[in-house]
Design brief:
The chain is α/β, with parallel strands linked by helices and 307 residues long. It has a single domain (4-306), classed as Arginase, Chain A. It has helices at residues 25-37, 53-59, 62-71, 90-110, 142-152, 170-176, 217-235, 261-275, 292-306, and strands at 4-7, 44-47, 78-81, 84-86, 117-120, 159-163, 182-189, 206-211, 239-244, 282-286. Strand 6 (159-163), helix 6 and strand 7 form a beta-alpha-beta unit. The structure holds zinc ion. This is Histone deacetylase family protein.
Protein backbone atom coordinates (compact mmCIF):
# COMPACT_ATOMS: atom_id res chain seq x y z
CA UNK A 1 0.00 0.00 0.00
CA UNK A 2 1.43 3.37 -1.02
CA UNK A 3 1.79 6.01 1.65
CA UNK A 4 1.35 9.74 1.06
CA UNK A 5 3.79 12.13 2.72
CA UNK A 6 2.41 15.62 3.30
CA UNK A 7 4.49 18.61 4.22
CA UNK A 8 4.81 22.34 3.44
CA UNK A 9 7.55 24.94 3.10
CA UNK A 10 5.92 27.63 5.24
CA UNK A 11 7.31 25.97 8.38
CA UNK A 12 10.71 27.51 7.62
CA UNK A 13 9.31 30.87 8.73
CA UNK A 14 8.63 29.46 12.22
CA UNK A 15 12.00 30.55 13.62
CA UNK A 16 12.45 29.28 17.15
CA UNK A 17 15.91 30.68 17.93
CA UNK A 18 19.36 29.14 17.94
CA UNK A 19 19.02 27.05 21.08
CA UNK A 20 15.50 25.70 20.74
CA UNK A 21 15.14 21.94 20.11
CA UNK A 22 12.13 22.32 17.80
CA UNK A 23 13.49 23.71 14.54
CA UNK A 24 13.28 23.36 10.77
CA UNK A 25 16.17 20.90 10.56
CA UNK A 26 13.85 18.26 12.01
CA UNK A 27 11.70 18.13 8.88
CA UNK A 28 14.79 18.43 6.69
CA UNK A 29 16.35 15.44 8.48
CA UNK A 30 13.21 13.37 7.95
CA UNK A 31 13.15 14.23 4.25
CA UNK A 32 16.84 13.39 3.90
CA UNK A 33 16.34 10.10 5.73
CA UNK A 34 13.44 9.15 3.49
CA UNK A 35 15.52 9.95 0.41
CA UNK A 36 18.62 8.06 1.61
CA UNK A 37 16.55 5.00 2.44
CA UNK A 38 14.97 4.99 -1.01
CA UNK A 39 11.53 5.31 0.57
CA UNK A 40 10.97 8.81 -0.78
CA UNK A 41 10.56 7.54 -4.35
CA UNK A 42 7.81 5.17 -3.26
CA UNK A 43 5.77 7.88 -1.50
CA UNK A 44 3.24 10.29 -2.96
CA UNK A 45 4.66 13.68 -1.92
CA UNK A 46 1.95 16.28 -1.42
CA UNK A 47 2.26 19.96 -0.46
CA UNK A 48 -0.17 21.11 2.19
CA UNK A 49 -2.44 24.13 2.41
CA UNK A 50 -3.49 26.60 5.10
CA UNK A 51 -6.22 25.83 7.63
CA UNK A 52 -9.88 26.72 7.37
CA UNK A 53 -10.83 28.84 10.37
CA UNK A 54 -13.95 26.81 11.29
CA UNK A 55 -11.73 23.73 11.74
CA UNK A 56 -9.59 25.54 14.30
CA UNK A 57 -12.63 26.84 16.16
CA UNK A 58 -13.98 23.33 16.74
CA UNK A 59 -11.04 22.73 19.08
CA UNK A 60 -9.99 26.19 20.29
CA UNK A 61 -11.86 29.22 21.58
CA UNK A 62 -12.35 32.21 19.33
CA UNK A 63 -10.72 34.39 21.96
CA UNK A 64 -7.59 32.26 22.02
CA UNK A 65 -7.31 32.33 18.23
CA UNK A 66 -7.77 36.11 18.13
CA UNK A 67 -5.20 36.53 20.92
CA UNK A 68 -2.57 34.66 18.89
CA UNK A 69 -3.24 36.94 15.93
CA UNK A 70 -2.88 40.01 18.13
CA UNK A 71 0.34 39.05 19.84
CA UNK A 72 2.33 37.76 16.85
CA UNK A 73 5.49 39.88 16.67
CA UNK A 74 6.61 41.88 13.64
CA UNK A 75 10.24 40.97 14.26
CA UNK A 76 12.33 38.78 16.56
CA UNK A 77 10.27 36.43 18.69
CA UNK A 78 8.19 36.34 21.84
CA UNK A 79 7.30 33.41 24.09
CA UNK A 80 3.62 32.47 24.27
CA UNK A 81 4.36 30.08 27.13
CA UNK A 82 7.65 29.25 28.82
CA UNK A 83 8.64 26.80 26.04
CA UNK A 84 6.91 28.11 22.93
CA UNK A 85 8.54 30.84 20.84
CA UNK A 86 6.54 32.80 18.29
CA UNK A 87 8.22 34.56 15.34
CA UNK A 88 6.59 36.67 12.61
CA UNK A 89 5.99 33.54 10.50
CA UNK A 90 4.94 31.21 13.32
CA UNK A 91 1.20 31.72 13.13
CA UNK A 92 1.17 31.08 9.40
CA UNK A 93 3.25 27.95 9.92
CA UNK A 94 0.80 26.79 12.58
CA UNK A 95 -2.10 27.43 10.20
CA UNK A 96 -0.33 25.34 7.55
CA UNK A 97 0.25 22.58 10.11
CA UNK A 98 -3.47 22.38 10.73
CA UNK A 99 -4.44 22.79 7.08
CA UNK A 100 -2.05 20.11 5.90
CA UNK A 101 -3.48 17.66 8.43
CA UNK A 102 -7.09 18.36 7.45
CA UNK A 103 -6.21 18.16 3.75
CA UNK A 104 -4.61 14.75 4.35
CA UNK A 105 -7.71 13.72 6.28
CA UNK A 106 -10.03 14.68 3.44
CA UNK A 107 -7.83 12.80 0.99
CA UNK A 108 -7.60 9.54 2.92
CA UNK A 109 -11.33 9.58 3.60
CA UNK A 110 -12.30 10.53 0.04
CA UNK A 111 -10.08 7.80 -1.46
CA UNK A 112 -8.81 10.43 -3.89
CA UNK A 113 -5.40 8.91 -3.57
CA UNK A 114 -4.81 5.22 -4.03
CA UNK A 115 -4.05 4.44 -0.41
CA UNK A 116 -5.52 4.88 3.02
CA UNK A 117 -2.31 5.82 4.71
CA UNK A 118 -0.65 9.21 5.11
CA UNK A 119 2.17 10.67 7.17
CA UNK A 120 2.06 14.41 7.80
CA UNK A 121 5.42 16.08 8.49
CA UNK A 122 4.43 19.27 10.30
CA UNK A 123 5.83 21.84 12.63
CA UNK A 124 4.92 23.39 14.93
CA UNK A 125 3.58 20.21 16.53
CA UNK A 126 0.19 20.16 18.25
CA UNK A 127 -0.62 17.65 20.98
CA UNK A 128 0.23 19.89 23.95
CA UNK A 129 -2.03 22.76 22.78
CA UNK A 130 -5.16 22.89 24.92
CA UNK A 131 -8.61 24.38 24.27
CA UNK A 132 -7.47 27.90 25.12
CA UNK A 133 -3.74 27.58 25.77
CA UNK A 134 -0.44 27.22 23.90
CA UNK A 135 1.93 24.77 25.50
CA UNK A 136 5.08 22.79 24.82
CA UNK A 137 6.01 24.13 21.35
CA UNK A 138 2.35 23.86 20.21
CA UNK A 139 -0.15 26.55 19.12
CA UNK A 140 -3.03 24.57 17.60
CA UNK A 141 -3.81 20.96 18.37
CA UNK A 142 -3.37 19.46 14.92
CA UNK A 143 -4.65 16.00 15.81
CA UNK A 144 -7.67 17.13 17.86
CA UNK A 145 -8.70 19.51 15.08
CA UNK A 146 -8.33 16.70 12.55
CA UNK A 147 -10.34 14.33 14.74
CA UNK A 148 -13.14 16.86 15.19
CA UNK A 149 -13.27 17.51 11.44
CA UNK A 150 -13.51 13.76 10.85
CA UNK A 151 -16.41 13.54 13.28
CA UNK A 152 -18.31 16.66 12.35
CA UNK A 153 -17.59 17.26 8.66
CA UNK A 154 -17.22 13.59 7.64
CA UNK A 155 -19.66 12.21 10.24
CA UNK A 156 -17.43 9.44 11.52
CA UNK A 157 -18.56 8.03 14.86
CA UNK A 158 -15.52 6.10 16.09
CA UNK A 159 -12.09 7.67 15.75
CA UNK A 160 -9.06 6.20 17.52
CA UNK A 161 -6.09 8.36 18.48
CA UNK A 162 -2.79 6.63 19.25
CA UNK A 163 -0.19 8.94 20.83
CA UNK A 164 3.24 7.34 21.28
CA UNK A 165 5.16 10.56 21.89
CA UNK A 166 7.30 10.44 25.04
CA UNK A 167 5.19 13.23 26.53
CA UNK A 168 1.53 13.04 27.50
CA UNK A 169 -0.86 14.39 24.86
CA UNK A 170 -2.45 16.67 27.44
CA UNK A 171 -3.98 19.02 24.87
CA UNK A 172 -5.67 16.24 22.95
CA UNK A 173 -7.25 14.96 26.15
CA UNK A 174 -8.16 18.49 27.25
CA UNK A 175 -10.13 18.91 24.01
CA UNK A 176 -11.47 15.38 23.39
CA UNK A 177 -11.54 13.81 26.87
CA UNK A 178 -14.85 12.11 27.80
CA UNK A 179 -16.17 12.43 24.23
CA UNK A 180 -17.26 8.93 23.26
CA UNK A 181 -16.61 9.47 19.56
CA UNK A 182 -12.91 9.21 20.34
CA UNK A 183 -10.70 6.57 21.95
CA UNK A 184 -7.38 8.08 23.02
CA UNK A 185 -4.44 5.73 23.67
CA UNK A 186 -1.49 7.68 25.07
CA UNK A 187 1.83 6.27 26.31
CA UNK A 188 4.32 8.56 28.00
CA UNK A 189 7.07 8.87 30.56
CA UNK A 190 5.55 9.43 33.99
CA UNK A 191 6.00 11.41 36.13
CA UNK A 192 7.27 13.89 33.56
CA UNK A 193 6.36 16.94 31.52
CA UNK A 194 3.60 18.11 31.05
CA UNK A 195 2.29 16.57 34.29
CA UNK A 196 -1.37 17.06 33.43
CA UNK A 197 -4.26 14.94 32.19
CA UNK A 198 -2.28 11.82 33.04
CA UNK A 199 -4.67 10.32 35.56
CA UNK A 200 -6.13 6.92 34.82
CA UNK A 201 -9.88 6.68 35.38
CA UNK A 202 -10.67 10.40 35.11
CA UNK A 203 -11.55 10.11 31.42
CA UNK A 204 -13.73 7.29 30.18
CA UNK A 205 -12.30 7.40 26.65
CA UNK A 206 -8.59 7.61 27.51
CA UNK A 207 -6.14 4.77 28.09
CA UNK A 208 -3.08 6.34 29.63
CA UNK A 209 0.00 4.12 29.78
CA UNK A 210 2.59 5.37 32.25
CA UNK A 211 6.21 4.54 31.45
CA UNK A 212 9.01 4.63 34.01
CA UNK A 213 12.17 6.50 33.02
CA UNK A 214 14.45 4.00 31.28
CA UNK A 215 11.63 1.93 29.77
CA UNK A 216 12.94 -0.03 26.78
CA UNK A 217 11.62 -2.14 23.93
CA UNK A 218 10.32 -5.24 25.64
CA UNK A 219 8.44 -3.52 28.45
CA UNK A 220 7.04 -0.93 26.04
CA UNK A 221 5.76 -3.45 23.52
CA UNK A 222 4.18 -5.56 26.25
CA UNK A 223 2.36 -2.52 27.65
CA UNK A 224 0.99 -1.59 24.24
CA UNK A 225 -0.36 -5.11 23.80
CA UNK A 226 -1.68 -5.31 27.37
CA UNK A 227 -3.45 -1.94 27.53
CA UNK A 228 -4.32 -0.95 23.96
CA UNK A 229 -4.65 -4.00 21.75
CA UNK A 230 -8.00 -5.39 22.89
CA UNK A 231 -9.45 -1.93 23.54
CA UNK A 232 -8.66 -0.86 20.01
CA UNK A 233 -10.15 -4.06 18.58
CA UNK A 234 -13.34 -3.59 20.60
CA UNK A 235 -13.64 0.09 19.63
CA UNK A 236 -13.54 -0.89 15.93
CA UNK A 237 -12.43 2.55 14.73
CA UNK A 238 -13.45 3.94 11.34
CA UNK A 239 -10.25 6.03 11.34
CA UNK A 240 -6.94 5.83 13.20
CA UNK A 241 -5.10 9.07 13.87
CA UNK A 242 -1.59 8.86 15.27
CA UNK A 243 0.28 11.49 17.27
CA UNK A 244 3.61 10.25 15.96
CA UNK A 245 6.27 11.61 18.27
CA UNK A 246 9.67 9.97 18.16
CA UNK A 247 11.19 11.39 21.35
CA UNK A 248 10.88 8.14 23.32
CA UNK A 249 13.97 7.03 21.37
CA UNK A 250 17.04 6.15 23.43
CA UNK A 251 19.05 8.92 21.70
CA UNK A 252 16.49 11.68 22.24
CA UNK A 253 17.56 14.50 24.58
CA UNK A 254 14.03 15.53 25.59
CA UNK A 255 12.96 12.39 27.48
CA UNK A 256 14.44 9.45 29.36
CA UNK A 257 12.97 6.46 27.55
CA UNK A 258 14.97 3.84 25.66
CA UNK A 259 13.10 2.85 22.53
CA UNK A 260 15.11 1.81 19.48
CA UNK A 261 14.59 2.45 15.76
CA UNK A 262 13.01 -1.01 15.48
CA UNK A 263 10.34 -0.17 18.02
CA UNK A 264 8.93 2.44 15.66
CA UNK A 265 8.82 -0.20 12.95
CA UNK A 266 7.01 -2.44 15.43
CA UNK A 267 4.52 0.34 16.22
CA UNK A 268 3.92 0.98 12.51
CA UNK A 269 3.34 -2.71 11.96
CA UNK A 270 1.01 -2.98 14.95
CA UNK A 271 -1.08 0.02 13.83
CA UNK A 272 -1.20 -1.25 10.24
CA UNK A 273 -2.35 -4.60 11.61
CA UNK A 274 -5.30 -2.88 13.27
CA UNK A 275 -6.16 -0.93 10.12
CA UNK A 276 -5.55 -3.00 7.05
CA UNK A 277 -7.85 -6.00 7.63
CA UNK A 278 -10.83 -3.65 7.71
CA UNK A 279 -9.38 -1.03 5.34
CA UNK A 280 -9.38 1.62 8.05
CA UNK A 281 -7.51 4.79 6.97
CA UNK A 282 -4.47 5.77 9.05
CA UNK A 283 -3.24 9.34 9.32
CA UNK A 284 -0.02 9.88 11.27
CA UNK A 285 0.90 13.41 12.36
CA UNK A 286 4.40 14.32 13.51
CA UNK A 287 4.75 15.49 17.11
CA UNK A 288 8.15 15.35 18.89
CA UNK A 289 11.53 13.84 18.04
CA UNK A 290 14.62 15.96 18.63
CA UNK A 291 17.70 13.87 17.88
CA UNK A 292 17.93 14.43 14.15
CA UNK A 293 19.52 11.10 13.22
CA UNK A 294 17.27 9.03 15.46
CA UNK A 295 14.23 10.97 14.28
CA UNK A 296 15.00 10.33 10.61
CA UNK A 297 15.74 6.62 11.14
CA UNK A 298 12.65 6.13 13.30
CA UNK A 299 10.31 7.78 10.79
CA UNK A 300 11.80 5.60 8.02
CA UNK A 301 11.26 2.49 10.16
CA UNK A 302 7.69 3.53 11.00
CA UNK A 303 6.60 4.37 7.44
CA UNK A 304 8.38 1.31 6.00
CA UNK A 305 6.44 -0.95 8.33
CA UNK A 306 3.14 0.53 7.17
CA UNK A 307 3.76 0.16 3.45
ZN1 LIG B 1 7.31 14.89 23.04
Amino acid sequence: MTTAYYTFEQHFAHHTGDDHPEHALRLMAIEQGLKQSGLWDTLDIIQGTAAHEPDILRAHTHGYYEQLKLIQPEQGHIYVDEDTPMAPGSLQAALYSVGTCTQALDDVLAHQIHHHNAFVGVRPPGHHAEHNKSKGFCFFNNIAITALRAAEAHHLQRIAIVDFDAHQGNGTIDILGNDQRFLICSSFQHPFYPNSHYQTGRYNNVINVHLDAGTGSEVYRNKVLEFWDEALNNFAPELILVSAGFDAHRADPMAELNLEDEDYGWLGNWIAGKAQPRKVPVLSILEGGYDLNALARSVVAYISAMQ
